[in-house]
């Protein structure tokens, strides 16, 4: 393992690999990525594989739109000889109450201002897109055909391989045990395999971001919460878009291989970093699917897993650098949408580190917003 680097990035998920790729593409030499397990073993590899532009805040709409525009050409840009499996089959957001419909209307105004082609649908129009959707309980829906499915493993692999070709060194199964600082700035990273001397460290660990920040005495208002997902046996194609509901608490989509992937949120989920599965989730998920998408409830479940959402008070990421320790940067707190934002996370962090003009101005997503109360609340999350 190298004992010095210009930049050390902690975390081998989509955020870390994208940041490494963007820095290397801009000519930064001697970049090291540290991952305590294997590439894509954390939150990225455990996500639901959906990507959408239908958000309620202008900031999230801009980040998501730029990210999806990148994903449309990811194979070519990253010179990937496989396929990231980006399928723009749409997102159908359904609502069972008037309050949510009113929120959809507000969201669509913001989305249209950002150039996102979303629309409001009646229950009858939604049923034309998903014929077996139970519309008895629905008040309406929102739809965008440009949203869709993306393979998180292959997408992260594409960034990883592109970064490696540009000279980035990846150290897997290497755990960070400490951050060295002297006279108010970062000077190195301690790992279970030795010390790497560096003046720039990027915390891209998502679920474990707080423990890394604790190493330099930086308090951040985040916690990591378990989220569970299950997958069914594969069947013939029967559903094009992701079906999602914030009020009914579900998301479900059919993967290109034919299996259905689905999940839901639960405020009582543990926040102690466990990634075990529970029977309670499977039972509640089955009840919800049976009520909303009855034919899918007849499929056999073949696997269940859990990942961790790194949550902030306003459910928005933190893109910033530490005020108290020079050279320490953060791309954390994605609150469940880190995979969707991966391309712009890498661009934003590289621009911040190199002092460049931002492609998307993410300065509002700073750490100080939690102290001043200038939160940017995102209304459209499961």
Describe this structure in words.
The model has no long low-confidence stretch (mean pLDDT 96). The protein is of the alpha/beta class and 382 residues long. The protein contains 10 helices and 19 strands. Helix 2 (58-71) crosses helix 9. It starts with 6 loop residues before the first strand and ends in a 10-residue tail after the last helix. The strands form 4 sheets. The chain has an 8-stranded mixed sheet, sandwiched between helices. Strands 8-2-1-12-19-18 form a 6-stranded mixed sheet. Strands 9-10-11 form a 3-stranded antiparallel sheet, with no helix packed on it. It has helices at 14-25, 58-71, 74-77, 98-113, 123-129, 152-165, 209-214, 279-292, 342-354, 369-372; strands at 7-10, 31-34, 50-51, 91-95, 118-121, 140-144, 148-149, 169-171, 176-182, 185-191, 194-197, 201-203, 223-232, 242-245, 250-254, 260-264, 301-311, 318-321, 328-332. Strand 1 (7-10), helix 1 and strand 2 (31-34) form a beta-alpha-beta unit. Helix content is 27%, strand content 25%.
């Amino acid at each position: 393992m190298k004992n010095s680097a210009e930049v050390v990035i902690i975390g081998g998920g989509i955020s870390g690999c994208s940041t490494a790729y963007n820095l290397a593409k801009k000519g930064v030499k001697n970049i090291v990525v540290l991952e305590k397990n294997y590439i894509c073993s954390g939150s990225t590899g455990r996500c639901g594989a959906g990507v959408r532009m239908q958000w309620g805040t202008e900031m999230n709409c801009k980040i998501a739109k730029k990210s999806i525009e990148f994903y449309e050409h990811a194979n070519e840009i990253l010179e990937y000889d496989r396929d990231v499996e980006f399928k723009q089959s749409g997102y159908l957001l359904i609502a069972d109450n008037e309050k949510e419909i009113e929120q959809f209307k507000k969201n669509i105004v913001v989305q249209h201002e950002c150039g996102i082609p979303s629309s409001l649908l009646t229950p009858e129009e939604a049923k034309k897109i998903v014929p077996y959707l139970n519309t008895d309980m629905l008040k309406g829906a929102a739809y965008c055909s440009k949203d869709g499915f993306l393979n998180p493993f292959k997408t992260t692999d594409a960034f990883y391989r592109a970064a490696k070709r540009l000279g980035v060194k990846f150290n897997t199964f290497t755990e960070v045990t400490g951050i060295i600082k002297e006279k108010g700035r970062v000077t190195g990273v301690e790992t279970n395999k030795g010390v790497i001397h560096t003046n720039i460290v990027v915390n891209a660990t998502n679920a474990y971001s707080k423990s890394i920040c604790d190493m330099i005495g930086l308090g951040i208002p985040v916690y990591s919460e378990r989220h569970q997902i299950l997958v069914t046996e594969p069947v013939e194609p029967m559903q094009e878009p992701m079906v999602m509901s914030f009020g009914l608490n579900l998301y479900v989509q059919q993967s290109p291989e034919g299996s259905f992937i689905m999940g839901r949120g639960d405020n009582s989920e543990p926040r102690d970093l466990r990634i075990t599965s529970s029977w309670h989730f499977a039972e509640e998920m089955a009840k919800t699917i049976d009520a909303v998408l009855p034919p899918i409830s007849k499929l056999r479940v073949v696997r269940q897993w859990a990942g961790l959402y790194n949550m902030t008070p306003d459910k928005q990421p933190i893109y910033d650098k530490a005020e108290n320790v020079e050279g320490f940067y953060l791309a954390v707190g994605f609150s469940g949408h880190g995979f969707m934002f991966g391309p712009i996370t890498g661009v934003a962090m590289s621009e911040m580190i190199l002092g460049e003009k931002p492609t998307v101005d993410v300065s509002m997503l700073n750490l100080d917003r939690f102290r001043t109360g200038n939160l940017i609340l995102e209304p459209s999350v499961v």
